[in-house]
Every structure is written in structure tokens, then in C-alpha cells.
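User: Can you help me understand a structure? I only have the sequence.
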Amino acid sequence: MYTIFVGDKPIYLTTKVNKETDFKVFLLKSVDLAKIIRMLNRTDLKAVYLVGKKEEKLLKIFLKKLPNAIAGGGKVYNKKGKILFIYRNHKWDLPKGKTEGKETIEETAIREVEEETKVKYLKIIKPLPTTYHIFKSRGRYRIKITYWFEMSTNYKGKLKPQIKEGITKVKWLGKKKTAKAMKNSYANIKLLVD
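Assistant: Let's start by predicting it. Here is the structure, written out as C-alpha cells:
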């Protein structure tokens, strides 16, 4: 099963589903995705399930329904075990951004963390789960596919938010402050942090 977020509401891609309660079920191949997005945004519906026949084809079919934006980001730990967070649009988030030119996704992730926070000496430890969310840009819906990496750094310098990207704070957060920040974050970020 795959999860794609519209705001904090999930669209689940699956091959089977139980009886409907506080969610709706549609056939993946024939669904009107714009209608589904509007329904999630404008009603108290909790989730939508899109059902397909073959598990291995669910994501491929879904990703063809809207233009894709590819991004890379990092869940960065310092030597004290704290996680690097940014504060943008009144929510706590992890640094990420779109690929540029012919850079690899790993290069994108490192560049974006550096640009958004000014943290240097980043080292990728391992890949994390990929997240998917739908957003609107220039009047069109798109699917952002974000490839995440766990990173480490021994950087001890000053943190500096990238103001032109709408980032107002950059902080290293320990376990207690991270738990508090997750109460004001995005569903896909909670999946990576929890």
C-alpha cells in the first residue's frame, strides 16, 4: 500500500479494502483525481482509497495522473543526536527541495539542506522512505515525490533560515521538542520522524 497526502488527509493506493466508514473507495484506473482532491479539501472525509488490481502497478498508474515534481531532503542529526528542523508556513518541516539540472537525488538533498539552513559537512547515512503529497502550483495540481535521506553532520556554526523560501526559523530539536514540533507539522514529516 502507498500513501499520498492531500494536506494531512491520505489517499491510499491498495489492492483490497474493507467496508467504507469515514472514507470513500474509487477505482484507481478511472478516478477523477481533481474531484477527489476537492472532496478531501472541502469535506470532513478522512481518507480516500484508490483500488487497483496489481500491487506493483499502483504507484505507476497513480503518478501518471498528474505532473510530478521530484525533490530531495534530509533528516539531519548533529553529534548530540538532535534533528535539524525548519519552520515554514507556520509549520515545522524538514529541509527539502526540487532537483536542479542533472544533479543526482543525493546531491539535491544535500544542496537543499545547505541552502535552507546553512548547515555544512553533511554526510548521507541511509535512504529513508519516499513521501508523496499533492500540491497546487500555478493553478495546477502536482504530485511531489520527495526522496529522503538520513544525514549526519559535525557542523557547529550558526543556523540561518533561507528567508526567500519562506523559512523563518532553523533549529536543532531534541526528543521532547521534536515531539512538540510534530503536533504542528505535516503528516508525511510525522511518518519520517515518529
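Now, to help you interpret it: Helices lie at 33-42, 58-63, 105-117, 175-181, 187-193. DSSP finds five helices and twelve strands in the chain. Let me know which part you'd like to focus on.
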